[in-house]
Amino acid sequence: MCAVGLAVLAACAPNASDGPARATILYTASADGNADIFLRRGADGTPVRLTQDPAQDHWAGWSPQAGRIVFQTLRDGNREVYVMGADGSDPTNLTRHPEDDLLPAWSPDGSAILFFSTRGEARGPNGEYMGNLWMMGADGSSPRRLTRTALTASFSGSWSPDGRSILFSRDVDGTIALHTLDLVSGEERRLTPGPDSFSGARPSPDGSLLAASMQVGDESRIVVTDRTGRQVRTLTSGAAHYYPTWSPDGTWIVFTGAPVGSSDHDILAVPVVGGEPLSLVATPADERYGTWLGGPVGGPT
């Protein structure tokens, strides 16, 4: 694993021939108009369908030991967080709540799950979602609210590699700014000063860098920053790119991409040092929310 800052990224240049081409990718695809969760081993691998429920299944993530998968689903009439075996077996509802629970992410040690919930919050004046980040045990036990004031945009959160803090975005006077939340003190701290907006941020496996989607006009670009959120390096442009996650060794970023204005998304990867994005999963189906086996996970609605 490369523990680096932005100034020395080039020292960790990956070999494009032995990275994404052999990666095992977990993702969501709407192959028949209904979103389900798929697995693909290597660029030439045959996609394996893990869920086949009439309801939509999204935002899947590996447990740290890769034995289980957490995901969100509409199978109970509202959004709930489920877990299932790595082969799609034994799907189990963890949240069992009448409000919407979504965007789950495993803690680094696999003992807890972070998620977004609308529990206790009314809709906004225009019907928009409002809610908070919560965490619960890996078996759904002891749910507790983390954020003290509701989030109104960019709802997903991610864990720091040491499991002591949460990275998320909050709307501050029209700017979507990166924040951290200390899980012991409950203190929130703003990272990015603005005016740029950042969402879907994920720390690298060693915590030295953050990957995020940055809004620039009609584009959403994949960027990396240092841990302060102030030194930003753009990796992609000219399209709508979202939901970055990291390769296990921290040298690649997997993301969802589409031409601006298109609803046909694919799963791509780009080296952290920069370069042309590589296609990982691209079919006529709409594919989103890719995660690389062994890497940090998490996701969106």
Describe the protein's architecture and organization.
The protein is mainly beta and 301 residues long. The protein has a single domain (22-292), classed as TolB, C-terminal domain (Neuraminidase). It is 0% helix and 45% strand. The chain contains no helices and 24 strands. It has strands at 24-30, 36-41, 48-49, 57-62, 68-73, 80-85, 92-93, 101-106, 112-117, 132-137, 144-145, 157-159, 165-172, 175-182, 188-190, 197-203, 209-216, 219-226, 232-234, 240-246, 252-258, 266-271, 278-281, 286-292. The strands form 6 sheets. Strands 3-2-1-24 form a 4-stranded antiparallel sheet, with no helix packed on it. Strands 4-5-6-7 form a 4-stranded antiparallel sheet, with no helix packed on it. The protein has a 4-stranded antiparallel sheet with strand order 8-9-10-11, with no helix packed on it. The model is unreliable at 1-17 and 295-301 (pLDDT under 50).
Brief digest:
The protein is mainly beta and 301 residues long. It has one domain (22-292): TolB, C-terminal domain (Neuraminidase).
Describe the protein's topology:
Layout: E1 24-30, E2 36-41, E3 48-49, E4 57-62, E5 68-73, E6 80-85, E7 92-93, E8 101-106, E9 112-117, E10 132-137, E11 144-145, E12 157-159, E13 165-172, E14 175-182, E15 188-190, E16 197-203, E17 209-216, E18 219-226, E19 232-234, E20 240-246, E21 252-258, E22 266-271, E23 278-281, E24 286-292
Antiparallel strand pairs: 1-2, 1-24, 2-3, 4-5, 5-6, 6-7, 8-9, 9-10, 10-11, 12-13, 13-14, 14-15, 16-17, 17-18, 18-19, 20-21, 21-22, 22-23
